Amino acid sequence: MSLTEPPFDLEQTDKHVTVVCRLPLQLSQGHRYASLWEQLQARAFEQLTVDFSHIVAYDTFLVVFIRRLRQLATDRSATLQLWGLSPEMERLLQFFEQQAGASQVPPAAAGWRRFFERLGESLLRKLEDIRAFFVFLGSLIVDLVRHPHRVRWEDLPLFVFAAGVSAVPIVSLIALLIGVILGYQGAVQLHRFGADVYLADLIAISVTRELGPLMTAIIVAGRTGSAFAAEIGTMKINEELDALQVMGIDFIRFLLLPRILAVVLTLPLLSLIADVAGIVGGLLTALTTLDFTISGYLLQTQQALNYAHVFTGIFKSFFFGFVIGIIGCFQGLRVSAGSASVGRAATIAVVTSILLIIVLDAVFAVLFQVLGI
Amino acid sequence: MSDRQPLVQVRNVTVQFEDRLVLDNISLEVFAGEILCILGESGCGKSTLLRVMTGLLPPTSGEVWIMGQNLWAVPEQQQRQILRHLGVLFQSSGLLRSLTIAENIALPLQMYTHLTDLEIMEIVRLKLAAVGLSGSEALLPAELSGGMQKRAGIARALALDPPLLFLDEPTSGLDPVTAASIDQLVLEFKQIFGTTMVVVTHDLESTFTIADRVLLLDRHTHTIIAEGDPHTLRNRTDHPAVYNFFNRLAKLER
């Protein structure tokens, strides 16, 4: 078939349109019939005759083509005549007619109605999520308090290592850089007032109270929270959780509590390391941009810091760790099916924990202010 | 049979992984309109043979001719053109998990045809109806049962109406009733579309139902040890390995 040949011939006499199909009615050629629909749309007719006798090559597109012709004829209340269909074509049509006849897709609701339906559905789903989360939280606490001996403590060191020890390099590096950045910004501002010496105070207090615990929690949420969600989610898909349940083993104690406790225990320690690294970062800036000596800087830091500063940070870290562990495990349990769902759980785990961590931090900031700590 | 033009020709294909021989000098032909079943015990290399024929694994030596073109000697662009003529049902269906069933089937149509979205959706509906999955357009693969996943996989393999269809273990892991329904589907498609099919399987029941011709691969020699009509082969007693396979006799290697 040459490309210049018209795909079909169309003739009209009075109210009678005759179409002779010439190009193969195949999926790969189907788009070349696009102009047929335009031409038919533009014409008024009461009878439509389509001649298939020249068609040699055809496939499922033939079925689509004829269904569309029928639809068009019905819409125009015109009569449709199909000529020259071979017995094989008839058989193909009949085969699909038979199968497709049984299925009628329910019509979708109107646009605005569908919008509100979806809105309502998603709201209900969110409420259900929140309810499920509190049920989970409750059973977790009950398990921990009532049956502490049934928790699988053997796994705890493993998770402490994975969540804590192996996070030390990245946490220290980021905290160090935060110290350096904060130092530079602070140095410029303080130098204008001749208050160079207070750079040590600025670094020490902001790092230990806020930035150390916060940055650590965010890093661990990204590292460990997502890992928990993915791990538990995959285990759920592989029916490992079902297997535990059938064996009479409670997966909350067996799988979840060791993980959550590991984060709760290691996050404060990581925060302490971050505090030290942040102060060292500040020290590096102080030595390079202002006239500080090492001992002078450290002495000033010592005077600025008191236990309250350090311990408020550590105190917050416990809660941050709890948030990361619980959200990670909870999202893992919500995985339903498929690899995409695991990825989604990991993402939601990280985003939700970071959001909650920052909200919690804000609450603590107000609380400590009111309490004067 | 030999007077017909073969659609696929495998010539002296050998596949070797490191020092492990998987296929040893295999030659076979697939003729238009037939259903060829490739049989063999687990680990005999039948899936490897399928991978060689579907452009997934280059053979260590030998040639694969599909519709008169040498699959492994042509440039990549042309190889893709050839592969467009064949549909493949993978053992674990190969449906993309992140797409709905309808999107899975629409994918090849969107990539390789210039049809409008409306026409594509119509084709998707028809194909799904043809495999008995009407109404599951919006579902994700994970929400379907094993048998339904195979059906959806077949619908996707058939999306472009390929003249040649490869099926890797279409009935494995399915209950007898579902397996039989897949067999019926395969026969129906052969009849309606005249699709040529190469089926890799170790399901004897299904082979006796659908196969026009079978090939038996041997796990130890890595060659084809028998070829022909399955009902004839079942009664052949001269080759113990063939007899054992077709009559489900165990040979314990202790």
Percent of residues in beta strands of chain B = 15-25%
Enumerate the spans of chain A where pLDDT stays under 50 for 5 or more consecutive residues. none
Strand order of the largest sheet of chain B: 6-7-8-3-9-10
Give the termini distance of chain B in whole angstroms.
42 Å
Notable traits:
heterodimer; A: 373 residues; mainly alpha; Transcription Regulator spoIIAA; 3 domains; four-stranded mixed sheet; 12 helices; elongated; B: 254 residues; alpha/beta; six-stranded mixed sheet; four-stranded antiparallel sheet; 24% strand; globular
Describe this structure in words.
- Chain A is mainly α and 373 residues long.
- In chain A, 71% of the residues lie in helices and 6% in strands.
- Chain A has 3 domains: 8-101, STAS domain (Transcription Regulator spoIIAA, 2-Layer Sandwich); 106-146; 150-371, no CATH class.
- Chain A has 12 helices and 4 strands.
- Chain A has a 4-stranded mixed sheet with strand order 1-2-3-4, with helices on one face.
- The model of chain B has no long low-confidence stretch (mean pLDDT 87).
- In chain B, helix 3 crosses helix 4 (117-130), helix 3 packs parallel to helix 5 (146-157) and helix 4 (117-130) packs across helix 5 (146-157).
- The longest helix of chain B has 18 residues, at 176-193.
- In chain B, the strands form 2 sheets. Chain B has a 6-stranded mixed sheet with strand order 6-7-8-3-9-10, with helices on both faces. In chain B, strands 2-1-4-5 form a 4-stranded antiparallel sheet, covered by helices on one side.
- Chain B has a domain at 94-160.
- In chain B, strand 9 (213-217) and strand 10 (224-228) form a beta hairpin.
- With 254 residues, chain B is α/β, with parallel strands linked by helices.
- The chains are: A mainly alpha (373), B alpha/beta (254).
- Chain A binds chain B through residues 26-28, 30-31, 34, 59-61, 63-64, 67-68, 91-92, 95-96, 99-100, 102-103, 105, 336-341, and chain B through 97-98, 109, 112-116, 119, 122-123, 125-127, 129-130, 132, 134-135, 137, 140-143, 160-161, 188, 192-193.
